[in-house]
Every structure is written in C-alpha cells, then in structure tokens.
Write a structure and sequence with these properties.
With about 625 residues, the chain is α/β, with parallel strands linked by helices. It is built from 27 helices and 13 strands. Strands 2, 3, 4, 5, 6 and 7 form a 6-stranded parallel β-sheet that branches. A 5-stranded parallel β-sheet has the order 10-9-8-11-12. The N terminus is likely disordered.
C-alpha cells in the first residue's frame, strides 16, 4: 500500500445506493398513492352529497371533476419528473464518488499534480468485454431475488483447514547458550511501505536470533515514494513487541551510548543490498555479517527488506518469523480504534466475530457468546474486500494493452520514459513480447472490468457489499464504470469514516494502509487481483493463520483467466461461470507450505501452525 488520499464527499451516497434508491422510490409512490386515494374518497363523497340534485349542480360537478383530474395528472407528471431526477442524481453522485473517493498511492517519482493528470483526467468509459458484461448483467438480474449460495462465503475445504491451529507463540526451551554470550547489536533501517517494513522486521528478528545478537527496535526509512515519516512506535506497540519476543530474542529501544556515537559506515559496519544477495541463506549471514558483528559489536542493515530466504532455514528461525508477524506486531491503539470503527460500519455490527478481530483490533471490539455469534453470522451485512491493483505505475510497467486506444498507449509510454528509464533501455536491447503474448502468460494486471466479471462468474449478487482497498485506479471512473454497473455497493475508508476521524491519518500512508489491512483481513471474503502484492500476501496469511476455515480468499490465476476471457466473443455464460469457479477452487486447495514459499503468506506448516488429527 502506498500513500492514501481522501477527497471529501457524502459517504451516505456510497454503499447504500440500492437500498436508498428503493426507499426513495417506494416513499414517493406511497405518497402518490395516498394522494390519489384521498382524492378518490373526496370525489365519492361529493358525488353522494349532490346526487339528489344533480340536475342543478351537474355543470358545477363536471367542472369540479375536470379540475380534479387535471390536478391528479399534474401531480403524477410532477412525481415522475422527480423520480427521474432522483435517478439522475444517484448516478451523478456515484460517478463523482468513484472518481474522487479512490484511495491514493504515490508512484515512484510521481508528483501529486502529475498523478492527478494521469489518473483523474476525464475519459470515455473503457470496456474490453462488452458481450460478457451484458451476459453478466443479465445473469445478476435473474439471480437478484433468488437465494444466494452459502458456499460463496465459506471455505470449500473447511474441515481440512480447521485441523490447522495457530501455535507459533508456543513457548519452547531456550536454545543452549542463546544468551550466554551476546555477539553485539543489530540495527535495521527498513525500506518500502507498511507491508514491506513488516516483513523486514520479522526477518530481522530471525537474523538476530541466528547471530545471537540484540535487536534494536527497527527504524523506517523516509522515502519520497511513500512520503511518510512514521516510525515503529507510530504503527506498532513497542512494549508489547519487546515483551512477546523477550524469551527468544533480546530487543532494546536504543543502542548503548558508546555505540550510538560511532560512525558505522567508517568502521565498516554498514551492510547494504550490495553486500547480501536477495533472499540470502543463513550461511551468507554467518560468513559475511557475523565477522563484522564480532569485530565492531554492531552492524547496521541499511534499506533492509527481503534479504533472508525462506528455505533452507532452521525450523526455529521460521517459527520466530511467524511469532513476530502473527503475534508480536500489534497496531497502536489509535489505529485499532479507528480500524474498529471502520469494521463496525461495514458490518453494521459492534462485536468481534473471530480471532482475527481480537488480534487486529484488541479490546476495541468486545466479545460475544456463541448464540450471538451465530445470529451475527446470519446477518445481512457480510462484505467482500477487494484489493484492486490497477495503479498507473503497475499498468505502465506491465507493457500490456488495456483497450484504451492509441491515446492511452501514448500516455503510458510517456510515463515509462519519465519513471522507468531502465525499462526503456532494456527494451531497446531486447525483443519485447506482444500485448497478446503478455496477456496469455498472465503478465497483465487485472482491470476493474475483469475483476467484476470474476465476481459475477462466481455468483456474487448485484447488491454485494464490497470494500475497495488499494491505490488510486488508473483511468478513474472510465475504468470503474463497468465494475460499478455490476456492483454499485462499493465503499472505501474515505466514505465510511468522517473527515475528523481520518484527519490524524492524512499524510501518513502507513497508517492509512493499516486501515486497509484491517478491513481486508477481517472481511467475510477477501479477493485479490495480484498475488504478488505484499498486502494481499500478508492479509491472506493472517486469514489462513487465524480463521479456522471461516475466511475464504479468492486468488484468480491470471494466465487461466486470460484464456477464458480470450473467448469473449463466443463463450456462453454458463461455461464462463463453470471455468471461473474451477479456477478459484483450485487456488483454494489445502496444502502445506511448499519449499521456498513465503511463510508470511502460507503459514500452514509445522514451523508455524499445529495440525490436529482428531
């Protein structure tokens, strides 16, 4: 996640379009019906009153009747106009909300005014799959008043998933000599945004244990990309972090004074990416870093991130990573408080529903008994969280074509020349794949249109309540139009929280990203469009670790989806549904973490979770 933006608008207009519109129409028709009924009774009473002398008053009666009919017709015409005006205003405000209410992320080197020029420019709606969109719309209309399948909101292999339980925080005997001789202090300066920093922190915990060193509370590098000065204590609870890890890793807030005054670069204690290969092995640390640590008593990992591989790695270090990520890193009360308000407003329910709620929101969501839990689970306000990755930098870097014509291709090329000069040089010296080849290989980010088609293919109804996380959508409303035509009940943190609640988070992209993290992790269903996204990886990992089989995650296979969508002009809707469902089901199969895969994303393994054979 990146820097978030909030443009003010009335949140009541978003996520309530269907119910609000229906209520408005029903109210007006009821009023009109009442008016006509009243007039009917007046007419009837008057007719009875004057029936005995109708010869005298027939002229007046007919004149009165003609006037009354004119009045009714006038009211009817007026109300019809008001209903049409109401529909127009709903559509207008939905358009404005989607254009102005998207969350914002700054792309590398992209100034705010430049970003707005690329993203907020008014464009005609872009649709790549007109025929499928029409079929989806017809299908959703048919299903609107039918019973929705409960399997949409459940894990398909729940009985298998439920056998895996969280246990990374289980206390184990200390390794022999772990504190007998401390080898020194480890400093890290983590780069990236909230989720990259979280991975760096837990990698640092494992490295500190490996090298038998004391870890100093990690620092976060300031970047013009993320533009967020937040430090560890602004995001996570420091004392809690130190306390949870104290039996296995010694953690302090500051370096001792005699080390803090040293010029670490001058004495050779500064370690950069150039000194360690990406996803380094434990032997790399022992060979490269340990001698410096023993010599100087301190090392500083500058720009630290994914510099520790997942395999091969001792089981104990893997467990420490899990304990750090799933247990030790708790958001500060400020984030938990606003996050709980966000979740309550999405669900229209005040209590915690799962272990995920308690872990992420602490005491700001109170517990309920089993009967209340069952009632809440049957409530109407289940929601799907969608992390839609379709930002200008991602779109431009992909080199794909997204159906926007020559003007869009020129715009993306201009962006690449400014922001990705190395990519441009590489393309000059190598043959690039065609747009169609890139799409067939699953290299293209999913568009909002494609994402909506996947949800429709799975059977989610038109009224499904959807929380949109992620960054500002490239193309704005021109891209979101096809999505909101199928799924109008779309909300974001900016539409659910008040300006006053959001004010302390403005200009702090990591804090804003934490709110998206919470809303996605606690959702009834979480859908991602890019499995390589750090947010999607960490959120899906949390849901695997804590859900007990009650938090399904949807992971479209972009390569398989491209093959399905390539048949846009001929495929029948039933066939489309079947193939989309099979694609998603395959991504939901239960399996133990495979060699080399991220333990943050796939914690289902003996080092992180315990399996029950009951």
């Amino acid at each position: 996640m990146g820097k978030q933006g909030s443009k003010e608008y009335d949140p009541s207009n978003v996520g309530r379009r269907m119910s609000g519109g229906d209520y408005s129409l029903s109210s007006k028709m009821l009023w009109l019906h009442g008016l006509k009924s009243h007039d009917f009774h007046v007419l009837r009473n008057d007719s009875m009153k004057y029936s005995s002398c109708k010869g005298s008053f027939v002229g007046k009666k007919h004149l009165w009747f003609r006037k009354d009919v004119k009045s009714v017709v006038f009211v009817f015409v007026l109300m019809s106009f008001l209903i049409l005006l109401d529909s127009f205003l709903v559509s207008f405000f939905d358009s404005m909300i989607l254009q102005n209410g998207s969350t914002v992320r700054k792309s590398p080197g992209l100034k705010e005014e430049e970003r707005d020029a690329y993203i907020m420019k008014e464009k005609s709606p872009v649709q790549m799959y007109d025929r499928l969109l029409k079929l989806a719309s017809i299908s959703l209309a048919k299903k609107e008043f039918k019973q929705e399948s409960s399997t949409l909101w459940e894990e398909p292999n729940r009985s298998q998933v439920a056998t895996w339980k969280p246990c990374a925080d289980t206390k184990v005997p200390k390794s022999l000599g772990i504190y007998k001789k401390n080898n020194g202090y480890i400093l890290i300066s983590a780069n990236g945004g909230l989720n990259q920093q979280r991975v760096a922190i837990c990698n640092a915990v494992a490295v500190a244990s490996l090298l038998n060193a004391t870890l100093v509370i990690p620092r976060f590098l300031y970047s013009n990309v993320w533009n967020d000065p937040s430090q560890f204590g602004d995001i996570y609870q420091e004392e809690y972090f130190i306390d949870v890890m104290k039996d296995e890793v010694d953690i302090v807030k500051e370096l001792p004074s005699h080390l803090a005054l040293l010029d670490l670069e001058a004495i050779g204690s500064l370690i950069t990416d150039a000194d360690l290969v990406k996803e380094a092995k434990p032997t790399d640390y022992v060979r490269t870093v340990l001698p410096i640590l023993l010599k100087n008593g301190v090392v500083h990992f500058l720009g630290y991130g994914n510099r520790l591989g997942f395999d091969p790695l001792p089981s104990e270090l893997q467990r420490l990573r899990c304990k750090c990520n799933f247990h030790a890193l708790k958001f500060v009360p400020e984030i938990q408080h606003v996050g709980s308000s966000l979740v309550r407003r999405i669900r229209k329910y005040d209590a915690a529903l799962s272990m995920l709620d308690k872990q992420l929101l602490g005491n700001f969501m109170h517990s309920i008994d089993s009967k209340q839990h069952a009632a809440a689970a049957r409530g109407p306000f289940k929601y799907l969280a969608l992390h839609l990755r379709f930002e200008i930098d991602m779109v431009a870097y992909s080199l794909c074509d997204f159906g926007g014509g020559e003007s869009e291709r020129n715009e993306l090329q201009a962006y690449r020349e400014i922001h990705f000069p190395l990519l441009i040089e590489r393309l000059k010296n190598s043959k690039s794949l065609s747009h169609s080849e890139l799409r067939k290989l699953g290299k293209c980010p999913l568009t909002p249109e494609e994402s909506a088609l996947v949800l429709a293919g799975l059977g989610f109804k038109h009224r499904t309540y959807i929380y949109l996380a992620g960054s500002q959508i490239y193309g704005g409303n021109s891209r979101m139009n096809s999505f909101t035509n199928l799924y109008p009940n779309l909300v974001t943190k900016e539409t659910l929280l008040t300006p006053r609640e959001l004010a302390p988070f403005q200009n702090f992209s990591s804090k804003l990203a934490a709110l998206d993290f919470i809303a996605c992790a606690t959702a009834d269903v979480f859908a991602m469009t890019d499995s390589g996204s750090q947010l999607s990886s960490l959120v899906s990992g949390f849901r695997t670790y804590y859900s007990g089989g009650s938090a399904p995650t949807l992971r479209p296979n972009k390569k398989r989806l491209a093959a399905i969508l390539s048949e846009n002009s001929t495929i029948g809707w039933n066939s489309f549904e079947d193939r989309v469902k099979k694609m998603i089901e395959e991504g939901q199969r239960v399996h133990v973490r495979r060699f080399g895969r991220s333990i943050y994303r796939q914690p289902r393994c003996p080092q992180c979770m315990c399996k029950s054979y009951l």
